[in-house]
Amino acid sequence: MRSNLAKRVVTPHPSPPVLDANSSSAKVSPERFWGSYRPQVYFGMKTRSPHSIVTGMMWMRQFAEMDVNLRHTCEQGDRLHGYGWLMHDGLTFGVQEIRDGDLTLTTEFVKRMGGDHGGDWTWRITAKQHSSAPQAPVISLMFYAAADTQGSLEAHVEERNRLASITGFSEELGNFKITFRKPVTGELSSAKYASYNYLQTVSPGLEKLTEIVKYSLNRRFVYSPPSGEKRHYIAVDTYRPPHNQQKPADPRKESAFVVHQVTVQTPFQIEVLFESGSFHTRPNQLVASVMTQELERRKAEFEAKFEKIFGLQSRGFSQTHIRFGKAALSNMLGGMGHFYGQSVVQSAYNEYPLLYPPGALFTAVPSRSFFPRGFLWDEGFHQLLLSKWDPQVTRESIGHWLDLINMEGWIPREQILGDEALSKVPAEFVVQRNENANPPTLFLALQELIEQLSSNPEKWDSQPTLPFLRRLYPRLKTWFEWYNTTQTGPLPHSYRWRGRDRDTNLFLNPKTLTSGLDDYPRASHPSADERHVDLHCWMALSSGIMASVARLLGEPHQDYERTHQVLSDNNLLNELHWSEQLRAYSDFGNHTQAVSLQQEKVYVPPGQPRHQFPVARLVRSVRRAPKLQYVNALGYVSLFPFLLHVLTPDSPKLEHILRDMRDPDKLWTPYGLRSLSKSDPLYMKRNTEHDPPYWRGPIWINLNYLAVRALHHYSNVEGPHREKAAALYEELRTNIVNNVYRQYAETGYIWEQYSDNTGRGQGSHPFTGWSSLTLLIMAEQY
Ligand code: 6A9
């Protein structure tokens, strides 16, 4: 019995998967086979396969003060002045700009369909110097192809060290050829002086590519342009593993890895072509002026579609605002990744963590540098934007996520799939526990798909939604049931997030990572007596969408309908969550406000030197015992009944909510709504000495998006608060758009959160996950 229970956490859901096993293959979906699905590198492409041949680019500056400044995976530590997609349609092309010191690299790709393996593509890299320094920088670009346990690569060298092309074969790509063209200054100019080097070796895994290149660098090469001094430069030579790495690699993982290095002075332009062997009817090569024409055509199509969908021009936005809007969309599309691997999971019935069944995930990522992987509740927000551009992307993303559900109805919250993803995560964050939820925001994205379907059922791109929902439905039911049974609270129709930190003595307020709002204040003493108002509202929303989906499919919907009605009952909500004292909605639990972090007392015997004893750490001191009561923290959580439209338009509570929102001593700032009231005792308080405030003041765009959307909603329905909502809508919308835009213009990035004090972007960057919802706010699409 016990062993059966222990297996449940890693047993897949029994219903047929939403996506056929070959749905991402070159045969079934050729136009989405190749893509920039490696958001964790500055520039690279792969196919939507479990073990794709990957291609990518590294670069470094020669003769620089800093010795080796190799760039490859997106790292905040590289301190680039900005990088990201300016245009990307998620399908056929992309244009990215990278600013590294005074160097600007433009990386463009265009795909061309043909043959049976996803067709061809061409990259064009344009390098320019930004400043007017006397010496134009000399740059090395390192283009590479690497296999991942399958497929072969063969290097073709001409003229001494110049790797002219790579030919290769893999099951999914068939035969292919990658050609490295020589650098030119412009499309019509002839070749310019360059030095060439290459590396041909094997890698034990894709996460090791940077290291292999680093350990193969040698400065014995001489750069000697016709009209200049001879200088030694750094280039790939032979790979010599560091001494401490004598461990023999797993031979099954050893895969071909080939690097082409070209060293050349700016300005220059280089093209790299991938040609599929099965493409026999290719009219010409996608290079030079043909490439330029293709790019221009794609850009024009992109512009037209962008304006048609988001209408920024017709809303009177400036050209710079429009460019920002395009970047927001393009980075979310260009941040789509395809991952494959196994989560590490644990249930109460496992002594040790287990490996989840291997699975694929096609998903957007919150941040290319800091968290280039899938996060469950982030994805619902991502798809709110992407569904406007390409609902097929949304169906495929949701399909992939729901195909990762186990027989219990649980989906791991953070998806760390494959060695590359794993290499970015500290060990203590890897294991995912099956008691733990994350807000079911995918229902928000489903709601959007359903609305598109009902508003325009004939539209070609919403037609596949109905068959999609039909396949999704058995899994969706189990997913909803999982929340509705495992996350229930102490009273009927109440809910409680699981997975709160138990080590109460170490944290000012134990975190609730599962809610997505990490350190947002909850009951000071986690217990089974808690009830959480945000989760109540998520369940009200989800049951409503379940009812709509069931109705659309002609399935029994009465139970969902009833649940939705009960959870939306404003009287019940008030009984469970309205705090008269706070005059706001609130969590309830075993709670005291009388807590603070204090230096732990360290006993030093008289006469002993102080420094021989451990440094006192901060621990929580509780001055008054907790009791069952409302938590009375005012912030995002108190807004949920409004944010998710659970309140009826005539609810008298709306008046309080709108007033608190507009109050600068509480939630209002000139840059958006802050996460926690300025008057709350935990406002901007650290949780431990190492843990700065996160959801305790700063402005987050996902919830600001919901707030603007809710204001829009309440200003469009009859009710006593309609005008107030309309006025706030205009103000809040303007504040958010202006600030996120201004920060982007000033810093080159879209950020994880914004300071409530100065509006400055902070946290990880680029963060083009939900912060990109600013575009929907500009476009007034909710
Ligand atoms: C820790 C550090 C290289 C935190 O956007 C993803 C999530 C959100 O879902 C959540 O609501 N972020 C928010 O509170 C970022 C979580 C990052 C955890 C990774 C490991 C990696 O160091």
TrEMBL record:
Q: What is its main location?
A: endoplasmic reticulum
What are its GO cellular component terms? endoplasmic reticulum membrane
Task: Give the GO terms filed under biological process for this record.
Answer: oligosaccharide metabolic process; protein N-linked glycosylation
Q: Where in the cell is it found?
A: Endoplasmic reticulum membrane
The Glycosyl hydrolase family 63 C-terminal domain covers which part of the protein? Answer: 288-780
* UniProt keyword list: Endoplasmic reticulum, Glycoprotein, Glycosidase, Hydrolase, Membrane, Signal-anchor, Transmembrane, Transmembrane helix
Regarding the membrane, this protein is recorded as: Single-pass type II membrane protein
Database matches in InterPro entries: 6-hairpin_glycosidase_sf, 6hp_glycosidase-like_sf, Glyco_hydro_63_C, Glyco_hydro_63N, Glyco_hydro_63N_sf, Glycoside_hydrolase_63
Where is the stretch described as Disordered? 1-24
Show the catalytic activity: N(4)-(alpha-D-Glc-(1->2)-alpha-D-Glc-(1->3)-alpha-D-Glc-(1->3)-alpha-D-Man-(1->2)-alpha-D-Man-(1->2)-alpha-D-Man-(1->3)-[alpha-D-Man-(1->2)-alpha-D-Man-(1->3)-[alpha-D-Man-(1->2)-alpha-D-Man-(1->6)]-alpha-D-Man-(1->6)]-beta-D-Man-(1->4)-beta-D-GlcNAc-(1->4)-beta-D-GlcNAc)-L-asparaginyl-[protein] + H2O = N(4)-(alpha-D-Glc-(1->3)-alpha-D-Glc-(1->3)-alpha-D-Man-(1->2)-alpha-D-Man-(1->2)-alpha-D-Man-(1->3)-[alpha-D-Man-(1->2)-alpha-D-Man-(1->3)-[alpha-D-Man-(1->2)-alpha-D-Man-(1->6)]-alpha-D-Man-(1->6)]-beta-D-Man-(1->4)-beta-D-GlcNAc-(1->4)-beta-D-GlcNAc)-L-asparaginyl-[protein] + beta-D-glucose
> What pathway is this protein said to act in by its record?
Glycan metabolism; N-glycan degradation
Q: Which GO terms describe its molecular function?
A: Glc3Man9GlcNAc2 oligosaccharide glucosidase activity
Looking at the record's lineage, which domain of life comes first? Eukaryota
- Domain Glycosyl hydrolase family 63 N-terminal per the UniProt entry, residue ranges: 33-196
Gene3D superfamilies assigned:
1.50.10.10, Glycosyl hydrolase family 63, N-terminal domain
Q: Which family does it belong to?
A: Belongs to the glycosyl hydrolase 63 family.
State what protein this is by name. Mannosyl-oligosaccharide glucosidase
